[in-house]
Amino acid sequence: MFEAPSIGDLNIAATLPATLLALGACIFLLVDLFVPKDRKYITALLAAAGLLTSLVLALLSLMNIIEFGSGETAFAGLYIADQFTDVVNVVVLFTGLMGVLVAYNYLDRIGKQRGEYYYLLLFTTVGVMFMGSAGDLVTVFVALELLSIPLYILSGFRWPQEQSEESALKYFILGAFSSGFLVYGIAMIYGATGTTEFRGIWLAVDEIIAQDLSSKYLLLLGAGLTLVGLGFKVAAVPFHMWTPDVYQGAPTSVVAYMSVAAKVGGFAALVRVFASGMSNFVLDGATAAAWQDTMWLIAALTMILGNLVAIVQTDLKRLFAYSSIAHAGYILTAVAAAGSAAVTNEAAQAVAIYLAAYAFTNIGVFAVIISVEKDDSSNTGLDSLRGMSRTQPLLAASMTLFMFSLTGIPLTAGFVGKWFVFKSAIAADLFPVAVIGVLTSLVSAYYYLRIVWLMYFEEGEPQVYIPWPLASAISLAVVGTLLLGIFPYLLQEMAQDIVLAFGR
Asked: 283: which of 25, 290, 426, 502 fits an S-S bond (Cβ 3.0–4.6 Å)?
């Protein structure tokens, strides 16, 4: 008979940053019904206030100033309240706050200032937070859908514009298809282990390997299908096909937020599933997890394809779509390193550090694109940045910093992220993928520095629109990119206590 969990088992206080934001999103949805159409700034302010409140709580928890709850799990083990959860919460809440800043004036310009934009953004943020804290495969699936469905709607927010509708339809169809793979993967893992809880899976895997049970093949198939489902969300090759079209067609404010939030959620789930649940899944006397080779091969292909195809792009949104694919490859390198038992926790720390560094830089990039984009969503070609250093020197300097960070040049957050990722790969003896990562970073310098060349050495007078919320978002991105690059120990201190591998 089903036994209802006690109040102690629920431990709701440990989930406070996520549950408060979820409750706030539901309340704002109702409040927005009474907000006049010409005063939607009220909904935007409420959304920002909710995000800021949860961000403060997450920061207090991350810095161990306040401990919420009485243990490391909540909702009877479905929710894990550890440092990895805190890092994911801080990164995605900051991303959501920046998403509100870049969206407000943008929505005014395109005539789509509607309250549902902001609470859909909040629901996606809650979905990411629950993916990062998942202690069970069922939690991963429910959180993934909570993350994805609002993004499908937001991608088509410029309807009846055909490009926006097309991007939403492609994203929805492929997203639903990938969810099917994830469900099948979860079913296979459950069939092999008899549980969906990560700690239970880890213990069952130990028994399966020790006794050489045939269910190991079912588990291997389940791991592969799960990787397909989550690979779509992080835009890993060959599950990346949706990314360029969705990035180009969706409203740029949505892309700015989605390019970071979807990756944070997807990689948080990948780390939870593979580093926590199956880091001990070792076959035939091997020294690394059975899924490691597949993971690093996908990482290598993702870095190669993303960087090479980005070279020939002439539209900024498509260029940074392929850039986003390439960066998924860098993060996957650290996920692959987690397959080596001695490196599992170090690799999880590298993933968290890279996601934090990437968040500042990528949102800053799309904020600059919004500043040059016209109301009809045109003027997003590379030519739109020509001569920017003469008319908008501060904006050009900001974009230059973001390009340096994405390339991985020292004293930027991007360099710190790549340093920790490649360090974890080398520690796991994944030298080939580490070399590919370094070489593809050199390739990326071509198309990133081409943008710098256009801004400083080409003639042009770009028309730029920078209201104060957008300027604030760019300024925050600049400060974060520089601060984490010059003081890398801030990121290291933030992630050093992340421990995900059971039994280590």
From this structure: 290
